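Sample intake sheet
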Amino acid sequence: MSDLLTVVLAAGKGTRMKSDTNKVLHKIAGKEMVNHVIDTADKISSKVICIVGHQAEDVKEAINSDVNFKLQSEQLGTGHAVMQAKNEIENHSGDVLILYADIPLIKEKTLQDMQKFHDNQSANLTIITTLLKNPTGYGRIIKNEESEIIKIVEEDDATSKEKKINEINSGIMCIDSNSLVKALDDLDNDNAQNEYYLTDVVDSVRSEKGKILSYQIDDKEEITGVNDRVNLSKAEKTIRERINKQHMINGVTIIDPQTTYIDENVEIGADTIIYPFTYIEGETKIGSHNIIKPHNHIIDTVIGDHNNIKNSNVIKESIIKSQCNIGPFAHIRPGCIVADGVKIGNYVEIKKADIREKTKVPHLSYVGDAEIGTQTNVGAGTIFANYDGKNKHKTIIGNSVFIGSNSTLVAPLKIENKGKTGAGAVVTKDVKEDTTVIGVPAREYIENKDD
């Protein structure tokens, strides 16, 4: 197959979405609609050009891929949009693929197969089509006896006979660059809307005796446009079904795929089990042999292997290593590192906390801006008082420390190895190694051995 130049049309306003946000920036499975299309195009193209217009700077900022942008300052139709890339098309010797940023379900394989069909048939123009039982509202594909396309007729212009045709135009096309350059030169806006229609390239290619074919696909969802919130929800469902299916093929157990929501960029290792009503978002990476119980919300987090993530936790922008027990009802806020074998229990909140091997924070505690050593136990109801009203301060706790229930640790503070606090202690001063403090404010406890 020849090198492929792809032009993605993303300049429209999308008024039917009824949103202040550009239509193509609405997210599906955690990724902007336009990025679904760009990422698919990027896998098969030598170069991708994105035509932007409405909220152009917002669209550019959202796209992280290496694409070229062209501005359509006035939205004068799909043909006019492609005209903005005419210089690049003229300098490209090979096929040009036209995609739409509001058709996010199109698959890489479908586009590859279409281009292969286009080249094998020596076509000048190939259009993706499908058959609909009710084609109302779509442009109809009109063919001759040789099954070549002779024109595309829009609903309003179709005769009663043409309206019975159920093969419809998706708008996605593959066309050789020379034919496209000639067609763009031939386009005019002599119509009621005074716009340049890309469908008119059929007339131009046909006038040059070019070969125009349809590449008919069975999966109608692939070419469904997203024009409103109803379409958006349907696209979301389809993409999430694809994502969950691929994870299950890769060895992940998803007990109820219909109530499990996994973003596209999430990675999950084999033999991990995911229970219903779980949301896994962003760039999360989960290892193997984990159990993730119901109602977890995990965002941009790295989770190792053999962890037990119990019910109803929120975990964001943190690292959980291996063989940990988390929850239920824990809140792990950004910046936490939870080492191997750690327990974070019921109703525990941690933030910017580095918690090392085999330490336990079993229940009802707040740990903020802290560093905790190995094999330490933090008693129930402990509060790390890290904020003085103006600034945040850090608490450093050593190895094998025992923090009594309902202790308050007033940062900045350091408790050295094997230090202890009595239940209810308010600790305002550093605690030395192998020392016990009690009371309010806490002071060193010296055992009277004569008693």
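Comment: The CA atoms of residues 304 and 321 lie 5 Å apart. The longest strand covers residues 167-176.
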